[in-house]
Amino acid sequence: MLLRQLLISLLLWVPLASIPVSAQAFDLDDLQRQLAATPSVAGRFEQQRELADLDSSLKSQGTFIFERGKRVVWQLETPVEERIELTPQAITDGSGEAAPPGGEQVAQLFLQLLEGNWQALESRFTLELSGDRDAWQVALTPKEAALRERIAEITLRGDRTIDNLDMRTPDGDRLEVRLFDQHPLNGS
Amino acid sequence: MKPERIMKCDRFIKTLSYRRLGWLWLVALAFCAVWLGWMLRQGLPADTDLTALLPADRQAPLIEKADRELGRGFENRFLLLLGDDDRVATTQALGRSLQQLVDDGQLAGIDWRELDLADADPHEWMGPWRYRLLTPQWQQAIDTDGGSTLVDPALRQLFSPTARPNPVADPFGLLDAWLSRLPQSPVGAADGLLTLDRSHQPGNQKWSVLIGELDGSPYDLPMQSALHTTLEQFQQQHPDAELLRSGLVFHAAAGARQAKHEMSTIGAASLLGVLLIIGFVFRSPRVLLQLMVPLLAGSLFALTLTLGIFGRLHLLTLAFGASLIGIAIDYVLHLQCDRAIEGRGFRLRRLLPSLTLGLISSVIAYVAQALTPMPGLRQMAAFAAFGLIGAWLTVVLWLPRFTLHASPFTARLATGWWRLCQPRWRLSPWLALVGAVVLVIVCALRLTSDDSLELLNPSPAALMKNEARVQQLLDRDTGSRYFLVQAEDTQALLARLDTLDGALDQAIGEGLKIDYQSLAGSVPTAVEQQANLARVRKLYGTPLDELIQRAGLSAEVAAKARARLEQSTPLTLAEWLETPLGSLQQRLWLGETANGGVAATVVISGARDARVDKALQALGESLTTPKASIEYVDRVSRIGELLGELRRHTAMWVALAMVLMTLALVARYRRRAWRVIVPPFGATLIVLTAFAVTGVPLNIFNQLGLLLVLGIGLDAGIFNVEHARRPSAWLAITLSTLTSLLAFGMLAFSATPALHYLGLTCLIGLASVWALVPWVRPADAYPTHSSPRQFSRESEHG
Q1: Which DSSP category does B395 fall into?
Q2: What contacts B756, CB < 8 A, 6 or more positions away?
Q3: Confidence band, pLDDT 50/70/90 cuts, at residue B8
Q4: Handedness of CA A185, A89, A146, A31 (dihedral sign)
Q5: Looking at chain B, which residue has its C-alpha nearest residue A88?
Q6: Which residues does chain B have within 8 Å of residue A93's beta carbon, measured at their own beta carbons?
Q7: Domain A24-181 maps to which CATH number in 3.40.109.10, 1.25.40.10, 2.60.120.260, 2.50.20.10?
Q8: 170-189 in B: which are within 8 Å (CB) of A?
Q9: Angle value at C-alpha B104, between B98 and B109, nearest 5 degrees
Q10: How close is the nearest chain A Cα to the Cα of B132, in Å?
Q11: d(C-alpha B710, C-alpha B361), whole Å
Q12: Across B417-429, average pLDDT
């Protein structure tokens, strides 16, 4: 990663120096196009949930498959085995049971975040992009008070793909999901 | 009314001075106007609700209350479903234009964005109650093996990326399991909009949901038209978008539009007809004005006194009462025809007995009606009786003082018309009797009745279809079928509701295709809540330790969780109804009853047919105990029954009024009485026979029409006998039936069922009255009033 960055910087050395604005011209649309270039990804995840009133945290890991616009399959391996499938319509778990009420909304948000669907997210969040195409970060803060009661801030980080999701709630809880070993899926 | 007494009366009037009486009546009317203005200072206290017309159902004030509670959402709110390929953009456009109505103060609010319905998270306010609320599956799981099978699902929930785990407050996710069992709104969020997703159904789509809240009454006309304009504009701009509407406001608006439309077609045509006829006969625009004065004075008098007595007025009373005052047009026409023809020879004295008898016989009919236990009929009868008295006083006291340019044409017309309508032979009383018996037999054999609710429903079919589609898409009940459950206190009630739910579940399991909503599903009894808490204590033993350990959490978490359990409080019904979820069920709760108990409803939705009704009825009866009653109520059939009762009561009192009238007439006319009776009663029988033969069912509205036919027919009968040889009387009878035909008979073309039936009755009835009169005209005049001069003159024409 670092090498590639160096290489690109070297190649673009002159233009970059002469037109420093171009680095900032990397906007959300560019990012969305960049993410859309890899429609389907598979990889591993590590999820850590820190709860404010607990000393210990809930850690889990497993694999995931992400098919853009269709679904996310979350395959939990430890500490318990579970397959969760999120689609824009519903969340279903291994036993095919429906999620608790309100779950669809969380699932939708999760899908929109993983897709980098800024248009949809912008209706509810203020988005702030920083960094460049190889190390970007998008910070999302809720617009409406009702949503601010549940979510303080969400940060997405990544390069060609989304590598890290960090969600904080006003009461001090934190959910951090790290996605790694990502590789494009065949046939996409 | 003996002739000598009339003479005495007449002399008394003379001594008091006829002029002074006229002024006195003017003062009385002025007083009425002031009083009415004072009573109307805050608008007309009018009822529009049909049930307000019906007797205060002494056995069932609770049913009325339940109906009100269940109907409230339909009255105060409206719901739009919008389907379109470009759903997001069109919904935003519609949402914004409706928001404009909110900003203009026409609507109280409009919800369409996803966040508009985001209630506070149930996890926040259900906190301390969750340990006492268990689903049957969880109860069973804990009872079987202490709940160890619940550990794995709990672990999955704790580690799901979309869950919001709380290992201290609820490590097992008790609350999520409980909430997922509650009835869920099919309306969710998608694309930032409130959405009803039916795209998994074949041929269906995603619908945007827009929920409007009214600021005031759904009958408010400016609001209706603003809403209508906004929606029409939207549909013009988005012709491809499918917009479904539901809510009383749309039906009310459709009714108002239809009334307006008919007013400008049927109403205008009949007004024009009346103007042409009166203008043709009297050749003077002043007669038209003089025609209106008694009707207006009568209406003012009636409105004031009825409001003064009853305090409120039903709009239907106003409509039908005002129609009945139309009988008063008889008095005007008889007086004016006589004046126009007699000119200076006109004497009020000669007409007074007939006019008085006409008034008295009509008023008797209404007084009989006013004695019924039906508040609606009482109001209507009082209104009509006061109106007739007021109009009569105006005719008698004022009209002769107005100048009238008698056109010689009127006299010529009367004579010519009189000649033209001489029957070849006259009806004999025996033939009339035979005819009546035949007609009665036909009626008895063939006449049917219909008291269905549809009669009262003026909504166009397209709107009803729209409404049904919305209800079906939303899986919503209309709140028209429910169990009314009563018990001595809340705990007993919850237990009864629970028993009923169990029985319903069983019936559904056995194939009854219904669904229900019950408070017992949300709030278990105190006893069950205690048992649930005991179960959760068991679950918080070894299974909790296992869960915490496998989740990789410290043992301290388990200790904290157990400490939380001890803070649990019971969930009461009152507390539940205050929560955001519980407030959706407030309509099911009726609270304390008059006899000190409490009551609630269980609303039924789904399949609807006689078999289901019977099954539910039987279910309610089988579960009723001496202390707690469970009654199945079908609102539609209940209102039908009430309408039927109203109809039967009217019929009974009309029959009684007919008997009283006959007695009064026999007292005056003796052997000639049958000639007076034939036009009104004969016309009534002809109408009923026509209905019987053509299969038009009898209902409350054509019966009200019969009252009008009776009144006009009776006046015609009286004048026909009293002034048998006078062309002016026959002209007046012709004019009065013709104008009434135009005013009321034309209503037969109305699309509103109630008006249609009223009009149809008048059409047949008034035509029959007119046709019957010549056949029963006595060959000689009634002896009392025919002066030799008249007699000789009339015999020339005869």
Answers
A1: H
A2: B747, B748, B749, B750
A3: low
A4: positive
A5: B190
A6: 156, 160
A7: 2.50.20.10
A8: 173, 176-177, 179-180, 182, 184, 188-189
A9: 50
A10: 18
A11: 10
A12: 82
Nearby residues of A86 by Cβ (< 8 Å), 6 or more positions away = A71, A72, A73, A74, A107, A110, A111, B162
Contact B550 A105 (CB under 8 A): no
**Would you call B174 exposed, middle or buried from its count of C-beta atoms within 10 A (0-12, 13-18, 19+)?**
buried
Hey, how many other C-beta atoms are within 10 angstroms of the C-beta on B464?
14
Q: Is the pLDDT of residue B412 over 50?
A: yes
pLDDT digits (tens, 9 = 90+) for B184-240: 677 777 777 888 887 777 777 888 989 899 988 888 888 888 999 999 999 999 998
B319 Cβ under 8 Å from any chain A Cβ: no
What pairs with residue A155 in β-bridges?
A139, A166
**Residue A188: predicted pLDDT:** 45
pLDDT tens sequence for chain A (188 residues) = 444 554 444 444 433 333 444 445 678 888 888 888 878 889 999 999 888 877 778 888 999 998 887 888 888 888 888 888 887 766 666 555 555 555 666 777 888 888 888 888 887 889 998 888 888 999 999 887 777 877 899 999 988 888 999 999 888 888 899 999 888 876 54
Q: pLDDT over 70 for what percent of chain B?
A: 92
Best of B160, B175, B184, B554 to substitute, by most chain A Cβ atoms within 10 angstroms, is B160
∠ Cα B234 B239 B242 (to 5°): 85
- Non-local (6+) Cβ contacts of A118 within 8 A are A28, A29, A31, A32, A127
In tens, the pLDDT along A140-186 reads 998 877 778 778 999 999 888 889 999 998 888 888 999 998 888 76
CA dist B780 and B722 (Å) reads: 10
How close does chain A come to B547, measured CA to CA in Å? 11
Half-sphere exposure of B396 (CA within 13 A, CB side): 23
**H/E element, B483:** strand B481-487
What residues in B contact A106, CB-CB < 8 Å? 162-164
Domain map of chain A by residue range? 24-181
Residues A18-37 as b or e (16 or more Cβ within 10 Å = b): eeeeeeeebebeebeebbee
What is the C-alpha radius of gyration for chain A, rounded to an integer number of angstroms? 18
Report pLDDT digits (tens) over B742-785.
888 888 888 878 888 888 999 999 999 999 999 888 876 555 54
Nearest CA in chain A to B198: A89
Alpha helix segments (H runs only) across B42-185: 61-76, 87-103, 122-125, 136-145, 151-159, 174-179
CA distances to A37, A111, A112 from A69, rounded to whole Å, are 13, 8, 9
Using an 8 Å Cβ cutoff, are A179 and A160 in contact? no
In Å, what is the CA distance from B33 to each residue of A6, B42, B610? Answer: 96, 15, 53
Of A76, A110, A150, which has the smallest distance from its Cβ to B159's Cβ?
Answer: A76
Helix, strand, coil percent values for chain A (each to nearest 5): 25, 40, 30
Task: Evaluate if residue B514 carries a pLDDT over 60.
Answer: yes
ipTM of the complex as predicted? 0.76
Q: How far apart, in whole angstroms, are the C-alpha atoms of residue B730 and residue B18?
A: 28
CA distances to A104, A144, B128, B164, B738 from B157, rounded to whole Å, are: 15, 28, 20, 8, 81
**Which residues lie closer than 8 Å to B97 by C-beta, 6 or more apart?**
B230, B233, B234
Rounded distance between C-alpha atoms, residue A166 and residue B451, angstroms: 67
Burial of B379 (0-12, 13-18, 19+ CB in 10 A): buried
- The backbone torsions φ and ψ at residue A149, rounded to the nearest 5 degrees and listed phi first, read -70, -20
- Name the band, by pLDDT with cuts 50, 70 and 90, for residue B58: very low
What does the pLDDT look like over B62-78, one tens digit per residue?
787 888 888 877 888 89
